[in-house]
Specification:
GO biological process, one term: xenobiotic metabolic process
Family: Belongs to the cytochrome P450 family.
Organism: Elysia chlorotica
Oligomer: single chain
Number of strands: 6
Order of helices and strands: HHHEEEEHHHEE
Largest sheet: 2 strands, antiparallel
Strand order of the largest sheet: 1-4
CATH superfamily: Cytochrome P450
Bound molecules: protoporphyrin IX containing FE
Helix content: 40-55%
Distance between the termini: 34 Å
Keywords: Heme, Iron, Metal-binding
CATH architecture: Orthogonal Bundle
Cofactor: heme
CATH class: Mainly Alpha
Radius of gyration: 20 Å
């Protein structure tokens, strides 16, 4: 339970900081979300008025908004060492000997911040998760939930928590620094789940 709330909470803290530090990205994500919610509302009200012409038409969550969340997860990398693993007995892997009982800490940055894969890994750029048709395209090296049979069993739950909370925040609130003009910096604290340095912001209702 601790793991689930801390990880999703930490990602949301970072997402809020990225919203404040990248207003153009946030504005584009919000525009898409607003369109998406209006389409849902239209469909629901036509269904309520007896129009059953396309009741099951799927309205997709917009790709750029999903890409924004992926980029927050890649850059924030809130489980940088995943979880400790161990081998039950001595193993050989690609010429390396792994002694029995060795504790292994994966380093997720080694893929999520690899220049050969991302080109400009230090830059916050959600577009990197969109293909030339504007559809979401996620490289296999995106591994915030790790890989293999022991990867995070709740990755879909976690992604849904991030989606619903960020849709709600972007649609209902304008975020502003506590002191006008002083956007909280993105300072990473040390820890197994690195949180940003404490900050205060204003949530201003939009409607
Ligand atoms: C953004 C949110 C989350 C991230 C980034 C995340 C990431 C991870 C990572 C990296 C691991 C370690 C995998 C490994 O090294 O093998 C893990 C394991 C695990 N996660 Fe998550 N997680 C998140 C949310 C959640 C939530 C919400 C739950 C529960 C509702 C959850 C339940 C678990 C459990 C039970 C394990 C241990 C699995 C095992 O030992 O086999 N996680 N998670």
């Amino acid at each position: 339970m601790w793991h689930g709330t801390t990880t999703t909470g930490a990602t949301l803290y970072w997402a809020v900081l990225y919203i404040l530090n990248y207003p153009d990205v946030a504005a584009r994500a919000r525009d898409q979300i607003t369109d998406y919610l209006l389409q849902l509302e239209d469909r629901n009200s036509s269904a309520g008025a007896g129009d059953t012409s396309s009741p099951t038409a799927k309205i997709e969550i917009p790709a750029y908004f999903k890409a924004f969340i992926h980029e927050v997860q890649r850059c924030a990398n809130i489980c940088p060492l995943s979880m400790a693993h161990a081998v039950a007995k001595e193993k050989f892997l690609k010429g390396y000997r792994v002694p029995g009982d060795a504790v292994i800490l994966p380093n997720l940055d080694s893929l999520m911040m690899d220049e050969d894969i991302w080109g400009d890994p230090e830059v916050f750029r959600p577009e990197r998760f969109l293909n030339s048709d504007g559809k979401l395209s996620v490289p296999t090296e995106f591994i915030p939930f790790f890989i293999g049979i022991r990867n995070c069993p709740a990755s879909s739950i976690a992604q849904n928590i991030l989606l619903t909370n960020l849709i709600y925040i972007l649609y209902h609130f304008d975020l502003e620094p506590e002191v006008q003009g002083q956007v909280p910096p993105m300072v990473r604290q040390k820890g197994l789940i690195p949180m940003p340095k404490d900050f205060k912001i204003k949530f201003i209702p939009r409607r």
